[in-house]
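Standup notes
- DV: blocked on the single-chain target, sequence here:
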Amino acid sequence: MLSAALNRSLLAAARGGAGQRAVARCLSTVEVDEAMVTDSKGNVDPMQVFEQIDTNGDGVLSKEEFRVAVEKMHYDDLLKIKDSLSRNELSYNPTADKDKTLEETHASVIGRRMLVTAEVGVSKIFPAGFGWQTAAYFAEKGGLEATDLNFFLATGVGDGIGVCVGHTAYMAGKKMVTGDQDIDLGKELQVGTMLGSAAVCSGGIWQPTVNALQGAGWEFTNSVIATGGVATLAFFTGLRLARLAYSPIFEGVEEATYANLKADAALSVAVGGAAGCFLGTDVSYGAANWMGGAIGIQDSFSPPLASAVAGTSTMLGFGVVQTGENLVYQKDKCWVD
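- DV (later): unblocked, structure below
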């Protein structure tokens, strides 16, 4: 796992402009013939870089080769290699890297990203919308109004519980079906707790944001965009604070770094898409709600059906925004990679 990650990191850094300078400098300290890895313009050939570091030529960096290379690298070089990537706990499972090749096509990258997108949508985003709507139902039954602070808190907690339970249950099922012993359910519960804590923030801010926009007379489409933007900031803030709180005590939660900051930001934008699309369930906008025919929650819906439609709406919004990210980001630059 470690060697595969380093292989990918070195190549990613070598392809970038700053990375070219970093790798070129570290190569000189590892006593690699720089003339063999650069062209006439001084650009680094990433394949030649790898071949020079891979001293036994088996296509994989051993622990010894890794140790020798790292000991002779400058600290700044290692930081640049790490910062060239965008990774967090939901990124593509690194244990599957052995099945990847350097000749991976653009189509296969997109396909892999869409698979991760679907998994996240089913395991976390759908349960988030389902949990929010279910909490709203019980809050209303308890006499709370959509303008009450306790209603905001209840729906936020429902959102967070949905994310945490959905993530943990999905990973437990995945381990049972695939037999993947690398899935540590204790760590997955910790990751679910971190994500759920962030979802409490975005779920809790949703209703007061909608109330404020409706009170200000905003029309539907602009409200979708604004609600998504507020939820993006709320989820991102919650996620970064959760890292600060949980990383010292949870082994499964990575401390805040620049690499996962980029990944968390991109994930938060997709979550904002989910929150924006969730507004489509509100049929009070009437004909202005151009999503209402597909995902509008009618008064005649049973509570389970209403919650299922809510989860579908959030999964749809997340999927649309994340698909855009999947198509735009370069290889190893998207959080799902």
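- Follow-up: DSSP finds 13 helices and no strands in the chain.
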